[in-house]
Structure formats: C-alpha cells, structure tokens
Amino acid sequence: MSHDDFPTADPAVVTCGLPYANGDLHIGHLRTYVGGDVYSRALERLGQETAFVSGSDMHGTPVAVNAEQEGVSPEAFALDWHERYAETFPKFNVEFDNYGHTHDETNTAVTQELVRDLDEAGHLYEKEIMVAYDPVDDQYLPDRYVEGTCPYCGAHARGDECDEGCQRHLEPGEVEDPESTITGNPAEYRERTHKFFAVSEFADYLSDFLDRLEGTSNARNQPREWIEQGLQDWCITRDMDWGIDLPGGNPQDLVLYVWVDAPIEYISSTKQYSERVGADAFDWEATWKEGASDDHPEGGEIVHVIGRDIIQHHTIFWPAMLEATDHAEPRAVMASGFVTLDGKGFSTSRDRAVWADEYLDEGFHPDPLRYYLATNGGFQQDVDFSWEKFAERVNTELVGTVGNFLYRSLLFAHRNFEGGPDADAPSDDVAARIDEAVDDVAAAVNDYSVRALGDAVTDLARYGNEYIQRNEPWKLVDEAPDEAEQVIYDCVALAKAIGVLFEPLGPEKSERLWEQLGEPGSVHETTVEAAREGPAGDLSEPTELFEQIEDERVEALNEKLEARVAEAEADDGDEERDDGADATDDDGTDANADEADADDTDMTDIEPLSDDRISFDDFQELDIRVGRIEDAVGIDGADELLKLTVDLGAETRTIVAGLKQLHDVDDLPDTKVIVLANMEKAELFGVESNGMVLAAGEEADLLTTYEGAGPGTKVK
C-alpha cells in the first residue's frame, strides 16, 4: 500500500460489505454495491489494476432460525438467497470480478488458517463467560437467539448489538433481562468456555491506523471514541451448529462468530479470482499479504465500501486481525449513509420499499438508478428516495443536460457530415475543458467521492450545451462550413469524453454511446486517456440515451406503493417479505447494512414536523449568518467538542460544537457554515461559546451555502 495518488503501481482490491443471505434486496441495499462498482470502474478508468470482489454472508443465527421455520437446512436456505443475489447484481450492472460466499471451501480453509495463525501468535485465549440459556427448551442462545436490554444505554438490544440505542457491539452475556427469541422463555446465564481475540493489545496500532486511514471521515472519527473508552477483547466463538468450525481442539463443538469469517471472505474471493485468471493477471497474495511480493512489500491498495453501521467491524476488529497475521491493512474505508423512502425508513413488514426486482419490472433501466444513488448527496450522507425526486434528477440531469447535449450534437453531425466531422484536433478551449474534466475525475477518485464523478460528467455536458448554443453551428454550416465542422468536431470530441468518463456510473448507456460514435472496441476497456483523444469512428444515426419520466408515471408508481403499504398494514400480523435482508445484517454483516428498517430500529426514523408554529416576526429575531471556520481544535477533557474560530464578517467568534467524532478536524478550516449568531453565550469545559453552528441529523451534516455568500451574509 502506497498512499500515493491513484493510479499507483500496487494492485487494488475494492470490496463491498457482504449481503446477508436472508431476504430480498430493495434499492436501498443497492447503494453500497452501486457505490463500490462505480468506484472500482473509476479506478480502472484511471489505469489502476483493480479487482472488485464480494460474496454472500451465509452464517449466523437469523439464517439458522429462518431455515428451521421453512423446514430446510441452513445451507440450502442461504444458498438459495446467495444465488438470487448473484443473479440480481448484474441486472444493475454491478459486476464483481468474483462473487463467492462464506460457506464455500475456499473461505472455510482461509478462515481456519487465519484463526490458527492468530492462535499460534498468542493472540487468542480461552475464558469462562456467561452465555444465555433457555432452560425450558434446553439450548444455548447465541447472538440473535436472545434479546433484552442494553447494559450501556438501556435500550432494547438484540444479541450482539444494541440495535435500537447506542449501536454498540455487545459480547455474549452482556444483554440484561435476556429472553429467548425462539420460545419467548426467560433465559438464564450459564458459564461456558469460549475463545477470545485480544483486540485490546492492538489499541495503539489501531489509533495510528485511523490516522492513516483514507475514505470517508465517519469511518475515521467514529471508532476513535471506542478506542478512547478502552477496547474490550472479542469473543470469536458461538454455541451453535451452523458456521465454520473452530480449528484445532474443539471439545464443545463451537463455531466461529460470523464476524470472523465474513470479512475473511474478502481475501477468499480475491484468491478465487486470482486462481481463475492467473496470478500474472492479478496476484491475490501480493495484494493481501505483507512481504509476499518484492514488488509490493506492503501489499496492495485495499478499499472497503460499507454501510456506516458496520464501521466498528471494519476499523477495529478486522484491521486488528490483519495486523496480527501479517496481512496488509486497508488503505480506505468508504462508509455510506442510510437511505430512506419519502422521508421514512424502509419497512419490510409494511412492504414500504421499492424492491430491486420491482424497479426492473417497471421497465426502468438500471443506469439512471445507479446515477441517482451515486450522486444524490455525499457518500456518507443519508439519501432520501422518492419517485418524484428520482424523476426530477433523471429528467433534469440525464435527459435535459447529458442526453440533450449528446443527441443534438450527434444528430447534427450525422445529418451534416457524412461519417462524422473531420478536423485535426479539438480546439484549444475544448481540449482544455476535457483535460479539466479528466482531472476532476482523478480528484474524485482520490477524494473517494462517487458524487464528484457524476458532477464531472454533468458539468462537462453542461459546458457542451453552452458551447454548441454559443457557436450556433446550424447558422455556420452555410455561412462558414469549415468553422461549423470544427464546432461539431469539438462537440463529438466532448461526447466521446463523456462516454469514457460516464462509464463508471452508466456502463450500459456509455457502451451504447460508444457504438453510436463508431469508436473501436469497448468503452469498458478504455482509460481516461481516451477522453483526450479526438473522435475517430464513423457516426451512426443516434438515438436518445435517456427516457423522460412523466408526471403521470410518477403518480401511478406512488399509488402502487401506497396501496401496497395499506394492504400490508391491514394484514398487520403477516410475516415480513424478508426476515432480515435489509437493515442491520441481523448478525453483523451487511445486508447491505446501509438501510435500517423503520420497524426494527430508530436509525432512519424522521421526526414528525412540529405543529407548533412561530410568526414571521419571531423568525426575524433569529440572527442567522454565514460563517467561515478559520481554526478547529479539540477541547481537553471533552471527547466530542471542538473549539471553532469562526469568521462572521463583522467579527470573529469562538464557538464550541460537538463535531469532533463526526468530522475530520483537519478538513474543517475554510468550511463555510451557518451560524445562529444571537444564541445565548454558554461556557463548556471552560470555553465560552458565542453562537451555534447549525447541522442536520445525528451525523452533524453541516449546513452551508450553495453559491458564493461570504461571511456575515444574513440568512433570510
């Protein structure tokens, strides 16, 4: 791993959190997989050697419970869902280089080998712990077989996670007032011997690792609090039959905790890919093992793309396992925000979801959804989906901006220049603008921003529309034909650049554009350098790439959704369509873990609008100003608070804000923020705070300005 700007000389592997093999996928689940696919393709466009891998998470208690309810084996149950996922992802142009699963022979062998290495290196030990036990049903209750109260915040907790409160990982025996989820019987705790991984030994390493870690700021900031609070060692075994057996002496027939073998599937899936294509094409050991290759002594560029509710596993447990066994550490973790539907959480029990297969059955192309999910907000921000918002983005940006430029340019070129316009090269201004777009794409990749990838394309198309409108080739074609030919050649060059740069977001539409341009080969085999090259193909008559979504269509889709939700609520007692595929993986891993079911957790619930109104005069009394952060430093003794120096135009103030765990402190200077300037002064940890910085949601999404309003500008 180099930490140099991409592309680097080291091989890269991009992974997505494993979907939990336990239910249907809806479009909220697709956000991380689309994001991973977009990022992987963008790396390849830069010329980076890249493998994109994932797999289905097959183990854990929900699979065992639901398989028993359906009267099939856990393996058969999970394999059925695995095969459905393997068929669904390509339908959305999410194309893994390898998609395996955690129960296959490769992952079983790699997992047991890594656990043996942990043991031989002295990082595992046995400990007597209290495990929940159902005395009526005569069985132990691992993970989601038990529920009760979180000992840390008092909220309802399920097995290994406080899912409705502090989101903390819970060890066996920690849940208070335990009950069996199988029988409803009160449970009791009994002593059992289990294996532990001494994660606490790696606290200093993990603190340094987070300093090096790239990706989204939430992936760096969130784990620091856990380290500061003191890391607890990690129980890596469970009392159940379904899972990978603990290697070595195993008199109690324990299996490994699902969160041991799930991330190891990243290694296993890369290994399977390497074995299929050959080590010369992609060397999995050079990527994952330190010292395995003289050319890559520190391993490759490992990028994990996950839902934010599994940050702890990917930034604490997993890197500690890798460090302990001489594997390469991740270079970056990209943790996405949640997805809501019309401002509310996805709900499987009320069928309030837009299912993946439903989207396709409605006749929509996958690429517009990819574009929407990738570009609607920053990757770590929450995204709200509605048919209205989806239609607006498609109609305005894909149809009105990108599609409009491509169609009008290529149609004019086809009709007026047989085979296409001819010129020596794009004009200087156009060539410079294409270079700028290529640089924007490279910057987006190195900033881990899939949104910026989309902005680079739409901005280039917007420039193209302005260029063709400004030069009016329809007038020049008779008055100055040579000049007209150069203008249209420039437009076709812009269209070619768009085809290359849009490929990560809309691979199928980009390939279709490539064919209309008559360019040789496939756009999927190009790098960004092809965007700088003038067009060379024979143009065919173009067709429009994107289809307008009419208001009537949106109304019909909303009516279908509302009717379905009403029917599900009327049934009320019916079983859920999936019993855990959305939201928090139910046993730890992704499902994709970036959407929380509103029925099961409060993580995506939107508070109802207040009925208490204020007058316009009351609002006018609020002095809300644009500010610019000049400096940000931590406050001694306060885990979450920062002392901000904020320029408010007329004066500079000190404001205390709870942003330390939620933002990269080094990135805050020069950030424009919105400040309630006439907030009462308050003293916090000995620092006087003179104002309030406004932010949205639990992740403190800072409010800012869209255009160039300077410090001191009043918000009206």
TrEMBL record:
Region (Disordered): 519-542, 566-612
Cofactor binding comment, as recorded: Binds 1 zinc ion per subunit.
Location within or outside the cell: Cytoplasm
GO molecular function: methionine-tRNA ligase activity
Motif ('HIGH' region): 19-29
UniProt protein name: Methionine--tRNA ligase
Cofactor section: Zn(2+)
Record-linked HAMAP family: Met_tRNA_synth_type1
Ligase as UniProt keyword: yes
